[in-house]
Amino acid sequence: MNIKNLQFNNTNILENLKSIKNLILITDEPLSKHTSYKVGGNADYFCIVKNLEQLRKIFDVCYPKYNIFILGNGTNVLFSDEGYRGVVIKLSGELNKLKISRNLITAGSPVSLSSIIKKALESELSGLEFAWGIPGTLGGSINGNSGAFGSEICNLIKNVKVCDYNGKIHNFSSNQLDYGYRYCKFPVNGVILEADLKFKQSSRKEIEKTMKKNMKWRRKYQPIESKTAGSVFKNPEGMSVAKLLESIYLKGKAINGARFSPKHINFIENFNNAKAKDIYDLVELAKDLIYKKFKIILETEIKLIGFN
């Protein structure tokens, strides 16, 4: 057991987590260290899970008594300044698998999209180029059905392996999933362990050409060098959320160290040591103004954790 910065927030849970063999357990861990916004308070417990056995034991200890949050690269989430009252789990180790078989790539939930795309490129497999430049992991991408340039990741899925909160393993084919614009739902509540993705044979030249074109577009139109969590709001059906936000003149609007990006209005940047509340207040401001003007309720694409 590797324990860092030990503080006794909940003795029973702490002792049970400590008993899990080789689990890396950190208490009072600043979530600002693990998110692209670089904000957020501390998690009661932060667990780095290296195998399925550890994950099952954490579920056995915590579910349903204690909050559980699975964190990928932290590129699509905003934790409050008060932090997270529960267990934040980071998957790694044996769960970080990546292998290829003909036109099928099997990747673990914590594998980055960029790693999968590079692996596909080596074997001249096409299909995921649209995600080049998206900084998230496979698990987070599937949960939110990440998409760009007219493509979505769930269209590549052949099978997904999920561990429910009782520790049971389920294998779902794509036709068992309920997915659409920026969502993917499973028949059970649980955690994605891995997925099989279907690709098409192409040429390295064509794949690289598409990747370069997509990245060029992102660099031109998105603040990819800034501290953001990607697109903040989903597009209302048949509408552009960016145009809605521009109509109420929010581009560049700042609250303390957070602002709507001057480059792309559907991004909020932490440009000057913002607090999570500054970012959240901008989100709420936009939602309120859009509703007052258009009677449209905006939905966030980013996850807001710990806010009332």
From TrEMBL:
Primary localization: cytoplasm
Metabolic or biological pathway: Cell wall biogenesis; peptidoglycan biosynthesis
Record localization: Cytoplasm
Record's catalysed reaction(s): UDP-N-acetyl-alpha-D-muramate + NADP(+) = UDP-N-acetyl-3-O-(1-carboxyvinyl)-alpha-D-glucosamine + NADPH + H(+)
Keyword line: Cell cycle, Cell division, Cell shape, Cell wall biogenesis/degradation, Cytoplasm, FAD, Flavoprotein, NADP, Oxidoreductase, Peptidoglycan synthesis
Top enzyme category: oxidoreductase
Pfam families hit by this protein: FAD_binding_4 (PF01565), MurB_C (PF02873)
Protein name: UDP-N-acetylmuramate dehydrogenase
